[in-house]
Specification:
Strand order of the largest sheet: 2-3-4
Number of strands: 5
Shape: rod-shaped
Largest sheet: 3 strands, mixed
Strand content: 5-15%
Number of helices: 3
Helix content: 25-40%
Distance between the termini: 92 Å
Order of helices and strands: HEEHEEHE
């Protein structure tokens, strides 16, 4: 059995319109972002504070604030101008561990007096 050319043309047109509609829908539908993982419970900061002159924004910052820890091996944490704090990597490492991962800690200055 042979299809008439008009039937094949209509079928091809219908298929193209269907593909176009799917592509348009995919382009305009709202994107569903996955839920961020829950933050681990905030721990107390350990070590000496490294005071920086910028606020914590929850992103990786350019200055390497934990750098002093590289030379003396003393545990440190970063204390930002907005009162937030993030932990430096455990010695002998000296990366801005908490800042790079968006994990804050409680600085001794933010803890209630005992």
């Amino acid at each position: 059995m042979q299809f008439p050319e008009t039937c094949i043309g209509k079928l091809a047109t219908t298929l193209c319109v269907a593909v176009l509609l799917v592509l348009i829908y995919d382009a305009v539908k709202p994107e569903r972002l996955p839920e961020p993982p829950p933050q681990p419970p905030e721990q107390d900061c350990i070590g000496e504070a490294v005071l920086v002159n910028y606020p914590y924004r929850g992103t990786v910052e350019d200055p390497h604030a934990c750098l002093p820890q590289c030379s003396d091996g003393k545990q440190r944490y970063i204390l930002y101008t907005n009162g937030k704090a993030t932990q430096c990597e455990d010695p002998p490492g000296c990366n801005d561990y908490g800042e790079d991962r968006g994990i804050t800690c409680r600085s001794p200055s933010s803890l209630p007096a005992r």
